[in-house]
Amino acid sequence: MTAAVASLDAAAPDQDLDTARAVLAAEAAGLRALAASLDGAFAAAVALLGAASGRVVVSGMGKSGLIARKIAATLASTGTPALFIHPAEASHGDLGMLVAGDAVLALSNSGETAELADLVEHARRFGLRLVAITARADSTLAQAADAVLLLPPAPEACPLGLAPTTSTTMQLALGDALAVALLRRRGFGPADFRRIHPGGRLGARLRRVRDLMHEAGAMPLAPPDLPMDAALLRMTERRFGCLGIVDAGGRLIGIVTDGDLRRAMGPDLLARRVGEIMTRAPRTIGPDALAAEALRAMNQGAQPITTLFVVDTAERPVGILHVHDLLRAGVA
After folding, report:
1. Domain boundary pick from 188, 222, 237
2. Is residue 223 part of a domain?
3. Residue 132 belongs to what domain range?
4. CB–CB of 328/214 below 8 Å?
5. Considering the entire predicted model, what is its pTM?
């Protein structure tokens, strides 16, 4: 290796980092400009897309087409039925995928993408609402649209000024903004999200506590006057490493854990009552809480715990949940 090549190799990491930071700075500046430029046109676009009785059909060519695919996927996963149509394929039969009640979201930085022409003309002919994302207000696409979301002037992060970089980042972010605005309009919540995300870790975290908890006879419970020797036997039988303490009305008033036993260790431990050494006001959770909330409850505070009692609105235990249950379900 020559000295010149070695020098270039040594300098390359610093140059690469400088380039990366410059790209991110340029794209961040574009996003700030985009946020500042939003006006009533955005609200109009959300209203048009939200009013569609059919699907939101998203389309674009080249890099804009790749962004359009992601926008369609994000819309569909957040409660807005959507699909992607390739504009070139649309001209060869895929226009039949559009039906009455659909709305079209078309992406083209220049607004002059030839392949979009047939799709735009079809939307106009059949009265489908058309929302455009483009950088040119005077473009053919913008002039044909019912609502136009203009990308502000921003240099591409590519040093040649040619490769779509900043412009596609703005398109992607604008698509996310539309999807989240529509999500909020529809009142789309965690339960809705779970219905269309049943698989994988995300689906697991959206399961309800009642789906994972151990019920009735599995719960280790005792009154506060139970002697510690009997309490230890009950804790060992249930194998949760704890004992819930309930009052005469069946309300959970405390918990005895392995940690409580260690702190109370002494020659008179077995002669004491569980109510004397229990931790009062233990952490609990409701049966309709999400599994992810149960995991957060276990990990909150200075001392994480491994078990939660599940209680009803009257603080009566209806189940018990161990961190191993969350692990088996793929939550933790």
Report:
1. 188
2. yes
3. 21-188
4. no
5. 0.66
Q: Is 290 left (phi over 0), alpha (psi -120 to 50) or beta?
A: beta
For residue 160, the domain's CATH number is 3.40.50.10490
User: 102-152 pLDDT, tens per residue?
Assistant: 999 999 999 999 999 999 999 999 999 999 999 999 999 999 999 999 999
* Burial status of residue 137 (CB atoms within 10 A of its CB: 0-12, 13-18, 19 or more): exposed
Contact 58, 162 (CB under 8 A): no
The answer as to whether 10 is a domain residue is no
Tokens of 6: 């070695």
Q: How far apart are CA 217 and CA 115, in angstroms?
A: 66
Distance of CA 52 to the CA centre of its chain: 24
Residue 116 lies in a domain: yes
Packed helices 40-51 and 166-186: angle between N→C axes, nearest 10 degrees? 60
- How far, CA to CA in Å, does 32 sit from each of 26, 195, 295? 10, 34, 35
Per the structure block, which two tokens stand in for 171?
Answer: 């398109």
The pLDDT tens digits of the residues spanning 175-212 come to 999 999 999 999 988 777 767 766 666 666 778 899 99
Q: How many CB atoms lie within 10 A of CB 249?
A: 9
Examine the domain organization and report whether 125 and 76 are in the same domain: yes
The reply to whether 86 and 173 lie within a common domain is: yes
Strand order, beta sheet including 307-311:
214-215, 317-322, 307-311, 284-285
The answer on 256 and 135 residing in a single domain is no
